[in-house]
Amino acid sequence: MTVYVDLVFFTNLAVDGTVLLATAKVRRLRPTRSRLFAAAFLGAFYAAAMFWAEIPYLYSFGTKVLISVIMVLLSFGYGGPLQFVRNFGAFYLVNFTTLGGVIGIEFLLQSADSPWGGMTYTAEGGLTLQWQMQLGLFITTFLLSVWLFRSTSETRRKRQDMEQLFWDIEIKVEEGSWAVRALLDTGNRLYEPLTRIPVMIMEASVWKEQLPPGWCERLKSESPDQLISEMDARFTEDYLWGNRLRLVPYRAVNGNTRLMLALKPDVVMLSREGHPPLQINRVLIGLDAGTLSSEGSYRAIVHPDMAQADPVSSAPSQPA
Question: Transmembrane region positions (predicted)?
Answer without folding.
Answer: 6-24, 36-53, 59-78, 90-109, 129-149
